[in-house]
Structure formats: structure tokens, C-alpha cells
Amino acid sequence: MRPAIFPLLPAPGCLLLLLVSWLFSPARSEITSLDSGNIDDILNNADVALVNFYADWCRFSQMLHPIFEEASNVIKEEYPDKNQVVFARVDCDQHSDIAQRYRISKYPTLKLFRNGMMMKREYRGQRSVTAIADYIRQQKSNPIREVQDLEEITSLDRSRRNIIGYFEQKDSDNYRTFERVANILHDDCVFLSAFGAISKAERFSGDNVIYKPPGESAPDMVYLGSLTNFDLIYAWTQDKCVPLVREITFENGEELTEEGLPFLILFHMKDDLESLEKFQQEVARQLIGEKGTINFLHADCDKFRHPLLHIQKTPADCPVIAIDSFRHMYVFPDFSDLSIPGKLKQFVLDLHSGKLHREFHHGPDPTDVAPGQPIQDLASSPPESSFQKLAPSEHRYTLLREKDEL
After folding, report:
1. Whether this model's pTM surpasses 0.85
2. What GO molecular function annotations does the UniProt record carry, in alphabetical order (predicted)?
3. Which of 43, 191, 245, 257 is most buried, with most CB under 10 Å away?
């Protein structure tokens, strides 16, 4: 009889080690590759999607790939439902149509989507697994604070923009629409809600949404449209949460610079709210039609001393109004001229026509010189742009210099 042959088996300790490794090694996450055929379907069905727009030849994109994948692994364990959180990527060389659609101007760009809608603010945090995972957890947290007593409303921080919804019940189409709006705009406003008996005093004729603007004496504004019409309530809320005149800080400077519009900036001392109010009123009165051609901003004189020095000003000269075209900076002649009808608008129109730049190099236009007064050809050097330095760093992104590169 021939002896039986048995295969060699690992020692029991090795078997146990192999089994433990198999059970506790996290499954590698597959990053969803997007193309023109699947992008709308995938993004529209995702509660939250973080999309990496990259190019294979970009070294910053190559550095981000393993970090992005590992962050996806971490989040997948916390949110296993495939539609809760999606990590996806777009090869912009292969899909230039998608890159153009989302106006990608640098690699890699991380953009956040909610139910198919791209959020205004892209991810600009640290390129680390922990930071990206924390960012997604923050996006998944409830953006609405539930009020347990209407007395809480009286102690709100009135330096912030507050949107308050009063609902009969949480399980309603009205509240779901409100929640969807809050998910998109929670970086710009504080959202609160009250339900049932607590909210009854504020529900004279049904569910109700109000806006409390900054300032202790500022009157409330009531939303009068349909609470189930997302487009209407989103447009109304965005108008209240995103002011016509925004504050520029070192934190949002890169984001504002990337919008590509020149800046019309009021430099004022932080506690000088009177000058800010005058500027806001005149921008709304004279320049509402220029929205989309120039960004209206205000800046703290103390924090932005360097740009002031560029235009030969100091905080002691504030309030000061200037335009930064991203090539040069131009100063509005006198803040006291702000209330002269059409003066601020003409300043902006002179930027668009090239007159501001021309006059820096050649003195006043002939049409602006009084009869008999000699025309002088005054060569000069307008101050260089200061805020352009807040643009995305070339040590963090591959910047596309020419728009047709996509």
C-alpha cells in the first residue's frame, strides 16, 4: 500500500494570523471614474460627492491620488451606503468637456457636490487623509440647530446672518426643502429650526421661514414663496446669505481671486460700520448692474496694511476705496465723493474702458482737460496688483495659464 500524501499546512499560529489579517484589513476603495456618460447619474444620486479633477502628468495630482484613496477608505467604513458619500475623479485630459463645464483652472481641484449641485466653495484644506475625512464628516453633519425654546432666538449672535424655519413637524416636504437649502448655504448663514408647540407662536398661517440680518435693530424679513419650491427658496436664501458686498480675508482671498473678476474694495477700520454701510448703499444704488463684472468687497485696514502701502495709504487714511484689476491698483479720488450721483459707477466704467490705466501712463484724457489748459504727457507706473498674490500657489497646484489648454 502506497503511503498517503497530505499537503503541508501552516502552523495554527500562522493560520490565526492570516485569518485576523483577512478580517481586519480594510477593503480598498474604488474611486469612481466619471465621464460624460455617467457623471450626471452618479452625482445626482449622491448625497455628498467629492470629485478630484486631475491630470496624470501633474505631479501634484500624482501626490494626491494615494491620499484621496485612503481618505475614501476611511469614510467608506463610516458611511457604507454607496449613495451617502461618493469619492470620484475626472481625468481632465481625457474629458476636457467636463473640465470646461466646471471651469477647472488648476490641477488637482477638489470640488464638492450635493445631489448633483456643485458647491461654490471647493476643498482648499490640507492634503492629508485626516483633513479630507474630517471635511466630509463636517459636510455630513446636520447644518440646522433645533431650537428647544423661542427664548433662544433672543440671544442669537446678531453679527451673523440667521435663517430660522418654524415648522409644524419635521417629517414634512416643507422641512425637507429647508434642510436641502441649509446643506448648501450653511457656510454663509446660521440655520435654525423649531417644531410643533414650540414654533406655534410663529406659525400664524402655516410653516414660516424668516431671515434675521446682522445688527440688533435690523428688521426681520419673511419668505413669502412656496416652501416646497426649492428653486424659489434657494434663490431667496442665497440673496440673504451671500451679501452684495462681501468681506475679503486671508482665508477666502484665494477663492475670491479665482473668480477672475476685478475687485472694488472699501478699506475701513473694523469698527467703522458707518463707512461700510454708505459703501453698501452706493454699490446697491449705482452698481447693481455691474454685478458679474466686478466683485464688491470690504477689507480690514489693519489686516490689509500691505495693499494699502501699495497705493501709498495707511490705516490712518481709511476709509479708502480702490480697484484691483489683478494688473494694477487704482484709488478712488476721495471717499467723501461716494455720495455724488454716478461718481462710483463712473470709476468702475473707467476701469472697463481702460481709462484708468491710460491716465496712469499719459495723464488726463484730452476731453477731461479744461479749454486752454496744456495737455501733459505724464509717464507713470500704476501700483502693481496686491491681491493677485492671494491667487492659488504654484507650489500646490499646476495652474493653467491659457484657458484653451483644456
Report:
1. no
2. protein disulfide isomerase activity
3. 191
